[in-house]
Amino acid sequence: MATPKPLVAGVYLPTSLGIMYTADQPTVITQVTLTNQTGSAVTVTLSIVPSGATAANNHRIAHTYTIPGNGKPFGVPDMRHHMNKGDTIRALASSGTAVSMRASGLLL
Predict the structure, then answer these.
(1) Secondary structure of the chain in the HEC alphabet?
(2) Which CATH superfamily is domain 3-107 in?
(3) Where are the domains positioned within the chain?
(4) Of 27, 81, 85, 107, which residue is the least packed, with the fewest Cβ within 10 Å?
């Protein structure tokens, strides 16, 4: 039976690609919410990197995606991605301490 779980619980995205979550068992990402805390637009890149792989362009699920300013939460569409044990969610923003991220999923 699938168990709901917060995967990333409100962290600011770094300005270089950082690991936000490592799957400790098969997982389905059900929702990712990004909130820009600044008054200006910020771009975000999100990747799902397979276990043992080096992050590359082909792992990106959002590339330089613009998040508008002023704190309106933005849900990333179509986030039903499956992760195997050891896969990682990695992210970066064009400005540090600007965009917070929360992700939820189901542990399989």
Answers:
(1) CCEEEEEEEEEECCCCCEEEEECCCCEEEEEEEEEECCCCCEEEEEEEECCCCCCCHHHEEEEEEEECCCCCEEECCCCCEEECCCCEEEEEECCCCCEEEEEEEEEC
(2) Satellite virus coat domain (2.60.120.220)
(3) 3-107
(4) 85
